[in-house]
Amino acid sequence: MDRCRIGEFGEAAAGRYLEEKGYLIKERNFRLSCGELDIVAADSDGCLVFVEVKTRKNDEYGFPSEHVNKKKQHHIKQTALLYCGGEVCDMRFDIIEVYYGQTNNIMYVNKINHIEDAF
């Protein structure tokens, strides 16, 4: 299974999860030269939520959120500030871990773990 397909699957699952929780999805895969934002959403209070999605089959090599290191966090924060036009606004940085299974080449969600205010 190629990484791109797995990533797209996880981001789609995370987007559906957030919408079911009442979030408004504003952007998906927002890219600038300094980085990418997987999902930009607004919660029910109007807070901008920048979501990094990590998709894995299991936690054999550590929890997916552990792969959002300080360097990755820095790039996400810089990109988020540029997204906001350089102005500080009410924002939060979350991580969504998507665990998937696969049967006969069909992927399905086993579990979603939403870590609010992760960094």
Would you tell me the overall average pLDDT? Answer: 95
Task: Compute the separation of the termini in Å.
Answer: 30 Å
Radius of gyration: 14 Å
The low-confidence parts are none
Biggest beta sheet attributes = 5 strands, mixed
Strand order of the largest sheet: 1-2-3-4-5
**What string gives the helices and strands in order?**
HEEEHEE
By DSSP (H or I, 4+ residues per run), the number of helices equals 2
- Overall outline: globular
Percent helix: 25-40%
Strand composition percent: 35-45%
Structural class: alpha+beta
Find the count of extended strands (DSSP E, 2+ residues).
5
Topology:
Layout: H1 3-20, E1 24-32, E2 35-42, E3 48-56, H2 70-83, E4 91-103, E5 106-115
Parallel strand pairs: 3-4
Antiparallel strand pairs: 1-2, 2-3, 4-5
Summary keywords:
119 residues; alpha+beta; five-stranded mixed beta sheet; 5 strands; globular
How would you describe this structure to a colleague?
The protein is an alpha+beta fold and 119 residues long. It has helices spanning 3-20, 70-83; strands at residues 24-32, 35-42, 48-56, 91-103, 106-115. The protein has a five-stranded mixed beta sheet with strand order 1-2-3-4-5. The longest helix is centred in the first third of the chain and has 18 residues, at 3-20. It is globular, with a radius of gyration of 14 Å.
Summarize the structure.
The protein has two helices and five strands, in the order αβββαββ. The protein is an alpha+beta fold. Strand 3, helix 2 (70-83) and strand 4 form a beta-alpha-beta unit.
